[in-house]
Specification:
The protein folds into two domains: about 10-35 and about 270-365, Aspartate Aminotransferase, domain 1 (Alpha-Beta Complex); about 45-265, Type I PLP-dependent aspartate aminotransferase-like (Major domain) (Aspartate Aminotransferase, domain 2). The protein is globular, with a radius of gyration of 20 Å. Helix 4 (about 60-70) runs parallel beside helix 10, helix 5 (about 85-95) crosses helix 9 (about 235-250) and helix 11 (about 270-290) packs parallel to helix 13. It is an alpha/beta fold and about 375 residues long. It contains 13 helices and 14 strands. About 40% of the residues lie in helices and about 15% in strands.
């Protein structure tokens, strides 16, 4: 059997999330029901009952691709490939762009799906740190040192998972400059666009900033529709063709139901309502989180966007043990910082209904006090 690096974050979730009473490990806003989406869109269940469950168009229905393309400057339907979540999109990027001898530059802490796929394909990953003491800003000197003519991809998650940080204009310019200097692709995972807490302005896409860009997004995080398993890639037509060919091997197509509901959700007025809902949950949830965590035990750099926070704690216990004790003793799940390569932290999702959130925070605080006095 080939050497394989498991996806630590998803393995932890797979082994712990089923049946847990209070789950704060997910990274999107509180999910909608089908009925709630239909109500927001002013549609009835008859629209779904009339849907044919035949194979959809492999690259995604034209109407859906047009709605996705409208979210990006100077993009058209031929720039869009609909995928089974952003996870398939990231997998397709790895299998299409990378070959032995290439290097990938990633920022940490981050969601490690693309980097893990690269490692499992025998690709070297170079890491650039985000500096917590500076508000999770990019170490620009390290970025300069880690990029070279061997760099094939600079992978960015913006807004960031798990910190919720948003790249500044200077950081974006530095990443674009590094890509142009080395001839690298920028692969931008932008699934948290639309969840801005600190600003009403949507985080700008990397699409259009330079020639070699692939933008990735999905319906899971900002839209509260993770069960659709519906994502997409934006790329130039020639690169999209190569990604499309691999998509045919991987999944053939996304589901008919997912396509139909995503098209409904991305109608201009419906999309606005969904993002307004997301931002309200994000802002209210973070305020409750910040007001509930004892400051002698916890600290957090306020996220600029996303449904989550990357919380640091002042306890003499590793993040894996902390998270395991929490789920075992108090039926409450968070993600250990070790899944992101950063100890004495955990990722906590707070864009959830208030009573549920407050109960979970009470349990979290109780464990922290027990560990502090043990």
């Amino acid at each position: 059997m080939a050497l394989f690096q498991p996806f630590a974050l998803e393995q932890f979730l797979s082994e712990n999330e089923e049946g847990v009473g209070y789950n704060f490990s997910e990274s999107g806003v509180h999910p909608l029901t089908v009925g709630e989406l239909l109500s927001i869109a002013g549609r009835s269940s008859d629209d779904l009952c009339a849907l044919s469950l035949d194979y959809p168009e492999v690259r995604g229905p034209l109407a859906l691709r047009e709605r996705i393309a409208a979210l990006y400057d100077a993009a058209g339907a031929d720039n869009v490939l609909v995928t089974v979540g952003a996870s398939e999109a990231n997998q397709l990027v790895t299998s299409t762009l990378l070959e032995p001898g290439d290097e990938v530059v990633c920022f940490r802490p981050t969601y490690q799906q693309l980097s893990g796929n690269a490692v499992n394909a025998g690709i070297t990953v170079r890491w650039v740190d985000l500096v917590e003491a500076e508000g999770w800003r990019v170490d620009l000197e390290q970025l300069e040192a880690m990029t070279s003519p061997r760099t094939k991809v600079i992978a960015v998650v913006n807004p960031n998972n798990p910190t919720g940080g948003v790249l500044s204009s200077d950081e974006r310019a530095a990443i674009v400059g590094a890509a142009e200097r080395t001839g690298a692709w920028i692969v931008a995972d932008e699934v948290y666009r639309g969840t801005e807490r600190a600003s009403g302005a949507e985080t700008p896409s990397f699409w259009g900033t330079t020639e070699r860009v692939i933008a990735v997004n999905s319906m899971s995080k900002a839209y509260g529709l993770p069960g659709l398993r519906l994502g997409w890639l934006i790329a130039d037509p020639a690169t999209l063709e190569a990604l499309w060919r691999r998509h045919e091997y991987a999944t053939i197509t996304a589901s008919a139901v997912g396509n139909a509901l995503a098209e409904m959700a991305l109608e201009t007025g419906v999309r606005k309502a969904l993002l307004d809902r997301a931002r309200k949950l994000v802002r209210t949830g973070f305020d409750i989180l910040l007001g509930s965590l004892p400051r002698d035990l916890f600290s957090v750099v306020p996220p600029q966007a996303s449904a989550m926070s990357f919380v640091a704690y002042n306890l003499d216990v590793g993040s894996g043990e902390f998270a395991s004790r929490l789920v075992r003793d108090l039926d409450t799940l968070v993600l250990p910082g070790a899944c992101f390569g950063r100890e004495h932290h955990f990722r906590f999702s707070s864009a959830l209904p208030e009573p549920y959130l407050r109960e979970g925070l009470s349990r979290l605080t109780a464990l922290a006090h027990d560990l502090k006095t043990a």
